[in-house]
Structures are given as C-alpha cells and as structure tokens.
Amino acid sequence: MSGKRVLRSLLHELREAASNPDAIKNSLAARYILAQYKKFETTDQQLCKARNEAVFLGQTYLSYLSSQRKYNAIYKEYHSRGERSVKETADLVGFKLPTDPK
Amino acid sequence: MLRGIRLLRFSNINKCQTSALAAVRHYASQPKRFYKQTNVLCTDTGYEVTLDHRKLKTPKGTLFTVKSEPLAIAVATEFDNQKEHIERSRMHISALCFTALDNPNNLTKLDMVNYLLNFMPTDTVLFQSEDETALQELQLNEWDPLINWFNKRFDTNLQKTMSITPPQVTDDDKIKIAKHFQSFSLDTLHGYIFAVDTLKSIVLACAVIEQQISVEKAVALSRLEEEYQLKFWGRVEWSHDLSQQDLQARLAASVLFVHFNCSEYLVQEKLIL
After folding, report:
1. Interchain proximity A60–B242, CB inside 8 Å
2. B249 with A61: Cβ contact below 8 A
3. Which chain B residues are closer than 8 Å to A75 by Cβ?
4. Residue of B nearest to A77 (CA)
5. Which residues, 6+ apart, have CB-to-CB distance to B217 below 8 Å?
6. What pLDDT score does B238 carry?
7. How high is the ipTM of this complex?
8. Angle of CA points B116, B241, B127, to nearest 5°
9. Which residue from A14, A50, A74 is facing B241, i.e. has the nearest CB?
C-alpha cells in the first residue's frame, strides 16, 4: 500500500474508532500522523534505518485499528445474544421461512 | 418475634439470589468512562497521559510515563476511543505499557531471554506435516523462506522437523539468539514476548518486527494449518474470524510497542544552502 492510501485509511479508521467522530481534526493521533507525513514528505528514508519504516509503522497502526474494529463488530454480533428466533436463524444461513414470499 | 423477622429476611434474600441467578449471568462491571478528554503531557522524565485533569496511573498505582511520544499518543487515543465503559481487556497497547511499567511478575532480563530461548524448539514454523502433500507444499512455500531468512539473519542453523520429535537447537545457536535479545531493554522484551505468545513462533515474530512481512501475513502464517483446514470444513465467523482479528490486533500492538520503544528519533536533516 502506498503512503497516501495508508494515510487515508488511517484517518478513516480513527474516525470510526473515535467516540466523537466530528472532533477527529483535533485528535492527537490524527495531528501526530499528519505531522509525521509532513516530515517524511519527500522521502521516508530520512532516518537511516530500514526502508519504508514510516509506512510500515503506519500500516501496522492501521491493521491495529481495523482489526480492533472488526473484532468489536463480530463480538457485538454474537456475544451473549441469547437464543435466536427462527427468522434470525433462517437469515443467518440464507433460508426463507414458509411464510415469506418466494 | 425477632427470630421470625430474621428468618423472614433470610428467606427473602434467598429468594432474591435464586431469581437473579436464573435470570441473567453477572459479569464484573466495567468502569464507566469518567473523563471527557485525554491529552499528552511532556515532562522531564518522559510523556504522561492525562484524563481531563487527572494523570493516568498504572494498575499498581505508579504514574504512567513512557519515553516515546507516539506511544503516549497511542495510549491517549485508546482511552479517548472508549465509548461508555472502559474496556480494558481490548486496549492492547495500554495493557502492554502497563505490564512493562509495573512488571507484575518481577521478571528480569535473564528470565525473559530464557523464556524466549525455551520457545525455540517448539516454534510453530519448525513443525511441518508430511501427511498431506498439499499442506506440506504450502508450508514449504510459505514457512521455509522465513526459516532461511532467520538462519541468515542470526547466523544460526535451525532445522525443521517432520515428525513429533522436537527440532534440536544447538547451544551455539542459543547463545547467538540470546545475545540478540540481551541487547534490548526490559520494556522492549515485554513487547517481544507478547508477540511471540501471540504468534507461537519466534521466527515469525522476528520477521514481522524486522519488517520482513506485514502483521496480517504473520498472523496468516501462524494460522496456516487452520486456514488450510478451513477450506474443507468451513469457516465459522464467531470463532475463526474472531480469533484472527484478535491475534492481528495483539500482534500489531506489540510490533508498535517494540518499535516505539527501541527507536531513538535521531533525525539528521540535510543542510540546505
């Protein structure tokens, strides 16, 4: 993934994760990431380290945020929901009830 | 009379308890989000996190201070992202910082290096199967390049095993790997152990921390056989996907933790005349 796409996805995930999505512009993480992008604008090899270090860290944080979000979504869907109704079970496996229109 | 009241009360309590037990299962309630804003403070000793006007403390009660700014920002963001309750079990970056600061098991560097070394002979990628040719081929293509990379990187000679007998790790190899891990600080080693425990493999953990593979790839490789079997037996979202996402989040947290802890931001900018 290129640097630009990582940035866009990171901001998207930060917005998804935030408790108040409107205030994302003032959030520390978003400001820090943007500042880092400014700093490494010409090249991310300014640090004499392995190549693409900055992008790698960005991708890692991105996968942290997105995995967390997906985990929460699955957890919310399935954890301690009690027994499902016949309709819900049918939807889950893609069946229709006899009462549903064909 | 008094006894009668007491009995009455007792039976009342009993009734309450049984009905409550039958109705719902009680989990320990999570603390409510008691703050509005989080922020990061820069002090002489490092970076601190504030929740409104309070300073964040570790579970043991010491003040939360880290050396790296991005790490403090990640922790502050994590606290800021909590909705109504603080779900501590899913805040992996904060949890790692707390563990490193408190060191609840009083581990020394030697303990941790020994723990990692003892993991070597049971490394996931060293146990390959020869029962199924398709799986064997998959492991050969996916795992072997990383074993080779590891051997080259650390100048070791790890050999995979095809049977139940664990692979032999020579003392020479152990010394080389121990030397590498000894060079890290205690905090960084906490991150390494968390990554190794997540992946069940030192080879994969080193590969992802040294940027050879991405986090998703590392988790996929550590679950290689599971993924292979899934093709035949089907994928269950609330088990397989849940564990995959959990492992990815944990691994990403530990990789970030290691990187932020052992990188010194020495930037030398070019002089523009």
Report:
1. no
2. no
3. 242
4. B238
5. B208
6. 87
7. 0.83
8. 40
9. A74
Separation of alpha carbons B150 and B144, rounded Å:
10
In chain B the domains, ranked by start, together with CATH numbers, are 38-102 (3.30.2180.10), 109-262 (1.10.3580.10)
Helix (H, G, I), strand (E, B) or coil at B47: strand
Q: What's the Cα-to-Cα distance from B67 to each of B1, B71, B97, B189, B233, rounded to whole Å?
A: 68, 8, 11, 15, 47
Task: Please report where in the chains the tokens 């990628």 appear, as a residue.
Answer: B125
pLDDT higher than threshold 70 for residue B148: yes
> How far apart (Å, rounded) are the C-alpha atoms in residues B163 and B231?
24
Strand partners, B216: none
What pTM was estimated for this model as a whole?
0.84
Region A62-84: what's the mean pLDDT?
Answer: 89
Window 16-35 of B: residues touching A by CB (8 A cutoff) are 25, 33
A67 and B248: CB-CB below 8 Å?
A: yes
Q: Using alpha carbons, select from B27, B37, B33, B49 the residue that is nearest to residue B82.
A: B33
The distance in angstroms from the start CA to the end CA of chain A is 44
Cβ of A71 within 8 Å of Cβ of B237? The answer is no
